[in-house]
Specification:
The protein is α+β, with helices and mostly antiparallel strands and 99 residues long. 14% of the residues lie in helices and 28% in strands. The termini are far apart.
């Protein structure tokens, strides 16, 4: 009987694990963040994949050497074709100066 009570109590605690007591206020910005000056982070890249003739941003990364980019492992799939875009401030503009 005591074992069953302990199990119920533990399951009750586990149910709330990872659930915030107060719902967070989410926004689309980093807390206290501000816009970067255009082209002030020249080593920041956009990793893009090709799908149906168009390119789509999937992850960011950092240029760590002339031929090397560091990004997260989950950003890469062996079945996709990728390109690295360097020097852009606004990915929605095709003819942006400096890109």
């Amino acid at each position: 009987m005591l074992g069953a009570v302990c199990l119920v109590v533990l399951l009750g605690y586990a149910y709330g694990c990872g659930q915030p007591a107060v719902p967070p206020q989410l926004s689309s910005r980093v807390v206290g963040g501000e816009d970067a000056v255009a082209h002030s982070w020249p080593w920041q890249i956009s990793l893009q994949y090709r799908l149906l003739g168009s390119w789509y941003h999937t992850c960011g990364g950092t240029l760590i050497a002339p031929q090397w980019v560091l990004t997260a492992a989950h950003c890469i799939s062996s079945s996709m074709t990728y390109r690295v875009v360097l020097g852009k401030q606004d990915l929605s503009e095709d003819d942006e100066p400096g890109s």
